[in-house]
Write a structure and sequence with these properties.
2 copies of one chain form a homodimer. Chain A is of the alpha/beta class. In chain A, about 40% of the residues lie in helices and about 15% in strands. The first copy, chain A, has 13 helices and 13 strands. In chain A, the strands form 3 sheets. The first copy, chain A, has a 7-stranded mixed sheet with strand order 2-8-7-6-5-3-4, with helices on both faces. In chain A, strands 9-10-13-12 form a 4-stranded antiparallel sheet, with helices on one face. Chain A is globular and about 75 Å long. The C terminus of chain A is likely disordered. The interface between A and B is large, with 76 and 77 residues.
Chain lengths: ~400, ~400
């Protein structure tokens, strides 16, 4: 059976060149960078600093502005809580969007329990935050705004640069969760106007277990973990040296190959966007159809439950995501789909197809062949099948034809 | 030049068998365990669960009692803050020792800022906590006690089982930082009587970037990072799958090979302990000479600054540690040495020699040959050299001869 991985937004495989770069740091250059008085530690420290330069270059930052973390989740926790605690003397109001990742959303809720006030900005039906809404929500107590660069579930790219010019003019700190974009599309911190930015290595063919927080030089932050003096006293714990080296290599490759990767992804995406509505009825895209990640298509299909679709596709060798890429802690409907107005009864039901550099047009054709059969099978499980579903023709205007 | 690594307490190289076990999880079985509805994610999830069993077996725990973290520092932060916050309804008093790792010490200080009261137990001149002191320090507000299993800097093994029987009788939660012992000497949670225990993979030939918190079944904890539902909702963030697999393999090897590794280490240690005082004057061991890690020797030498010694030893190809294995955030004298009564002017000056499974008796002989020369060189830099240091004979009773 053909095997097709279409879940790159959840995680990517490490590039073999990345693994090769990491290997010496497991068994040979295995020192702890904190022990840099001897050669073993010093070599490890130098490798970490070289990787820091590469990660900084990817987003046009300075090396000293990169704080390595163990995950995007840790970077987001650190940005939201660490910045809020460091700047609470100026005010205790924070603004985030409704569709942030759980690591932002639940950290904000934790801050509410600590006496902070949080505004949750609505998004439109395409998943877009309106920069005017950001401007209106800022008050004299506002110290921090966090809006994600792109949403993993519905693929929409938010107007970060526009929001950045507003936050800069108003003197409010601005963080963006760029886990779904850094290393995938151009992300330059000065152009975006952000003070802090979260990223993770396994989103762009680096290894799991390493992420980074960009923090603009001169911005204070309170460490959320306590311990040693690693990462300039801002993040303790023994560095994951092979992981950091791997993320550095992945960042270098992403910078050099980004344009060709994007050029490879867009035709795959656009083929799917053009073909899907022609082959399926009851079909609905999610997220803005143009302002979206180059390798990302997301949709839902009436009467076909998302998790069931994922399972049936898996039986055919195809891996896609349903709902959020990370497991929902509360097993409720996806907060992202709810926010864009998807009816609550289908909110477990969206499908996220995300492509990577190793996918081919044949993979897309295979998916286009399999999906309608799998959907039909789902529909046949519905009590409404005979009376309602079966009878309606494809392309009847009941959703789907938006391209 | 001969190269000798004697800093295993700071970090170990990954075992080649560990790296081999990890490799498929970078590029082939690369899925995200949270995406376990498809085969890529499911295979990764299964690998994580297999590793969890192996880590649990190492310390005679149940798999569901193992929470994977990214570091020992994170495990310690989570244990101290997470347990304190979860159980503060019963009281707000915590007990730790003076010689805990920074990740425990500074987390406790953070809790003080949040209204908790912390008792810092003194240790004796050998670095030992007196269980009677623990018993006396417990009051009706005490909810948590954290005493490290062995101190990385001075090698002393604390009477955890005795303390565990006290905490159990008094109904107080007991955590131990076992980063320096788990995977190295027998660590069985029931025998120790602990409710929580921190460990890290790179201490026992696993990779960096992965640790674990043992939490006894039924004990509540508040997650310190917020986000997805990974690790039973107790620790969010995409799993470092290759790292977890590597820690699992390292745990399996440690369990199977522990006795032979210890039998290999003890003669190396004891040779050094017996020979050093015969070859050096102004020599002082630190930490209890018998109740110590099998591969650990620590000492200081009057008039010879520790960091200088480490550098001079490094020029001779020998890697040892000075002071704490982790960089001190405040560059003050080592809090551990201060606690055992080492004079403040030498508190930057201790040397920690720690052996691993790949060291040989020839390595020890080389060290015994090099160290006196290097110390002599340090002494010659002292303004006291001609008048005081040079004239005194070896074995003059001025410290050192304690074996």
């Amino acid at each position: 059976m053909r095997r097709v991985y279409f879940d790159y937004v959840t995680t990517t495989p490490a590039d073999p060149r990345v693994v090769e770069a990491m290997l010496p740091f497991f068994t040979e250059t295995f020192g702890n960078p904190a022990a840099h008085l001897h050669e073993y530690g010093l070599k490890a420290k130098n490798a970490v600093e070289e990787a820091r330069v590469k990660v900084a270059e990817l987003i046009s930052a300075k090396p000293q502005e990169i704080i390595f973390t163990f995950s995007g989740t840790e970077a987001n926790n650190m940005a939201i809580k660490g910045l809020a605690l460091a700047h609470q003397g100026k005010g205790k109001h924070i603004i985030i969007s409704e569709i942030e990742h759980f690591s932002v959303l639940y950290t904000a809720r934790d801050l509410e329990r600590m006496g902070f006030k949080v505004t949750y900005l609505k998004v439109d039906k395409d998943g877009l935050v309106d920069p005017d809404d950001v401007a209106k929500a800022i008050n004299r107590d506002t110290i921090l705004i966090s809006i994600m660069h792109a949403n993993n579930e519905i693929g929409v790219i938010e107007p970060i640069a526009k929001i950045g010019s507003i936050t800069k003019a108003r003197g409010v700190l601005f963080h963006t969760d760029a886990v779904a974009t850094a290393g995938i599309i151009p992300v330059y911190v000065a152009e975006l106007g952000v003070d802090a930015l979260s990223m993770v290595g396994h989103a762009f063919y680096g290894p799991k277990g390493v992420g980074a927080l960009y923090l603009r030089e001169g911005v204070d932050i309170v460490p959320i973990l306590k311990g040693g003096a690693q990462e300039g006293g801002r993040r303790p714990g023994t560095d994951n040296v092979p992981g950091i080296v791997g993320m550095g290599k992945a960042a270098e490759l992403a910078r050099l190959e980004m344009n060709s990767r994007i050029e490879h992804l867009i035709p795959l995406r656009d083929k799917l966007i053009h073909e899907l509505p022609n082959r399926l009825k009851y079909f609905h895209f999610t997220g803005h159809i143009l302002k979206r990640l180059p390798g990302h298509v997301s949709f839902w299909i009436s009467f076909a439950e998302g998790e069931t679709l994922v399972l049936f596709l898996n039986y055919n060798g195809i891996a896609v995501a349903s709902g959020s890429a990370c497991s929902s802690p509360d097993l409720k409907a996806s907060h992202v789909l709810t926010a864009i107005g998807v009816p609550p009864d289908v909110c477990h039901g969206s499908i996220t197809v995300s492509f990577g550099k190793d996918n081919t047009m044949e993979d897309v054709d295979y998916f286009l062949d399999v999906l309608p059969k799998v959907v039909e099978k789902c529909w046949q499980m519905s009590p409404l099948y005979d009376d309602e579903i079966k009878s309606r023709p494809i392309n009847d205007g009941q959703g789907g034809i938006r391209v």
